[in-house]
């Protein structure tokens, strides 16, 4: 059973976590001089993130540590993405009554 769990973390789990980390990285990376570095850098780093998760799942002797790293990365970045989409102020409404007069 442990072998199938390890295959799950190394295969589809690594792909899903890498894509969610890519989506979350765009929110915490700085924009850069052109304002697009926070979009381009995660796209370039996805294969490296996937490879790191894949090899970690294959080579780490402790399956609990593999699960902790993968689920932790997934939870943090999925929370960032969910917070961005659930933020009601980002739809053009002012954050406070004082900002409406600016």
Summarize the SSE layout with pairings.
Elements lengths: L1 H9 L1 H17 L8 H23 L3 H24 L16
Helix pairs in contact: 1-2, 1-3, 1-4, 2-3, 2-4
* Distance N to C terminus: 61 Å
Helix content: over 70%
How is the main sheet built? Answer: none
SSE pattern: HHHH
Description of the structure:
With 102 residues, the protein is mainly α. The protein has four helices and no strands. The protein has helices at residues 2-10, 12-28, 37-59, 63-86. Helix 1 crosses helix 4 (63-86) and helix 2 (12-28) runs antiparallel to helix 3 (37-59). The mean pLDDT is 87.
Q: Which descriptors would you attach to this protein?
A:
4 helices; elongated; mainly alpha; 102 residues
In short:
The protein contains four helices and no strands.
């Amino acid at each position: 059973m442990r072998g199938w769990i390890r295959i799950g973390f190394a295969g589809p789990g690594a792909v899903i976590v890498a894509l969610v980390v890519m989506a979350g990285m765009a929110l915490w990376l700085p924009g850069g001089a052109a304002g697009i570095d926070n979009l381009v850098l995660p796209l370039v780093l996805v294969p490296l993130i996937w490879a790191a998760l894949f090899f970690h799942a294959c080579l780490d002797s402790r399956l609990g540590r593999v699960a902790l790293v993968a689920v932790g990365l997934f939870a943090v970045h999925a929370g960032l993405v969910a917070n961005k989409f659930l933020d009601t102020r980002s739809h053009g409404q002012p954050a406070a009554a004082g900002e409406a007069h600016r």
